[in-house]
Amino acid sequence: MVLVTLPAGAKLGTHTHPVNMGYCIQGGLYKWTYQNGKTESFEMKPGDTFQGGAEPPHFSWNAGKTTIQFVLVEKY
Question: Is residue 72 packed enough to be buried (19+ CB in 10 Å), middle (13-18) or exposed (0-12)?
Fold first, then answer.
């Protein structure tokens, strides 16, 4: 389990995830791009939950103007 806090414009380097789920504390526009060039985005709102399977390498960033904060739980 990890608390992720990303100020506006902050980027995370290339990484992967195992099966995961999360809970949004502070919302904003979160984007990520996979190695094949596909980009996705999610307008996070406080109280939103999300889940995902194992993910291929990607990088992500806070594309909004506010700090994003969420709890991420990964199953190893």
Answer: middle
- On the 0-12 / 13-18 / 19+ scale of CB atoms within 10 A, 18 is exposed
Token readout for 5 is 């806090």
Give the percent of the chain with pLDDT over 70.
Answer: 100
pTM of the model: 0.89
Residues of the chain with pLDDT under 50: none
Instruction: State the residue for tokens 């999360």.
Output: 22
Contact 28, 44 (CB under 8 A): yes
